[in-house]
Design a protein that fits this description.
Number of strands: 0
CATH architecture: Orthogonal Bundle
Helix content: 40-55%
Number of domains: 1
Largest sheet: none
Oligomer: single chain
Order of helices and strands: HHHHHHHHHHHH
Number of helices: 12
Radius of gyration: 23 Å
Structural class: mainly alpha
Shape: elongated
Length: 238
């Protein structure tokens, strides 16, 4: 089966059975999503949503955020991962939005990446979610799940995974596919112990196929380990 065929079947399953293809971050405009995505790096969406509620009440727009000190921003985001760096990023981001971009969040990935704290993944999220562009943001979930399912092969970094996914996913499904894959990684295809017994994609999954081939056949005769049997307390063989 080619990667394109496998991808088509996986996307058909997601389209019919997956959760709504949307971000779990709470926002009401492009500025709020941009801030939320920057804060979400190596942090859960649940924690970010807790933090951004009071943050956006205090800083409802780029202008108010740009006027704030880094210390004040830090006081609102201290419970997320790497709050010191993220406070500096948000301050620099706000200043650039206000003074160089007329307080308007740009739609192009290249322009978004000029903003402090905005890497390619974050830029792709904004371009995809806000501006409905065919941009594939590869986070840890997308990188892991795509490799396990066989949608990517041998990708050594997120950029390679992005390029491979963009080659096999139709443009009109890229934005939804991003969310579907993330949700599958968040709730089923877990990093340490994937819940394969709950997954309906095992027939298509390269990872599951390899794991199944490694399991010994039921017909294989196993040599029993030597055990010492006590008359009073039988020792159960492992």
């Amino acid at each position: 089966m080619t990667r394109k065929e496998r991808t088509r079947l996986v996307l058909e399953y997601f389209e019919q059975n997956s959760l709504p293809a949307e971000t779990e971050l709470q926002y009401s405009n492009p500025y709020e999503l941009l801030v939320a995505v920057v804060l979400s790096a190596q942090c859960t969406d649940k924690r970010v949503n807790i933090v951004t509620a009071p943050l956006f009440r205090r800083f409802p727009d780029p202008e108010s955020l740009a006027e704030a000190s880094v210390d004040e921003i830090f006081s609102f985001i201290r419970s997320v991962s790497y709050p010191n760096n993220k406070a500096k990023h948000l301050s620099g981001l706000a200043h650039m939005l206000v003074h160089e971009m007329n307080s308007i969040v740009p739609s192009e990935v290249e322009q978004l990446q000029r903003l402090p704290g905005v890497g390619r993944k974050t830029a792709n999220v904004i371009a995809s979610v806000v501006f409905d562009k065919p941009a594939m943001a590869v986070d840890t979930h997308v990188f892991r799940v795509s490799a396990r399912l066989g949608l990517t092969r041998g990708a050594k970094n997120p950029r390679q995974a992005e390029e491979q996914l963009m080659a096999v996913i139709p443009e009109d499904k890229v934005a939804r596919a991003h969310h579907w894959i993330i949700l599958h990684g968040r709730y089923i295809c877990l990093a340490r112990k994937p819940l394969c017994e709950r997954c309906a994609l095992t027939a298509l999954c390269s990872y599951y196929g390899k794991a199944s081939r490694k399991k010994p056949s039921n017909n294989t005769v196993k040599q029993k380990p030597k055990v010492v049997v006590s008359k009073s307390k039988p020792i159960k063989e492992s």
